[in-house]
Amino acid sequence: AQKVTQAQTEISVVEKEDVTLDCVYETRDTTYYLFWYKQPPSGELVFLIRRNSFDEQNEISGRYSWNFQKSTSSFNFTITASQVVDSAVYFCALSEEEGNTPLVFGKGTRLSVIA
Amino acid sequence: DVKVTQSSRYLVKRTGEKVFLECVQDMDHENMFWYRQDPGLGLRLIYFSYDVKMKEKGDIPEGYSVSREKKERFSLILESASTNQTSMYLCASSPNSGQQETQYFGPGTRLLVL
Question: Which residues, at least 6 apart from B1, have a Cβ–Cβ distance to it below 8 Å?
Answer without folding.
Answer: none
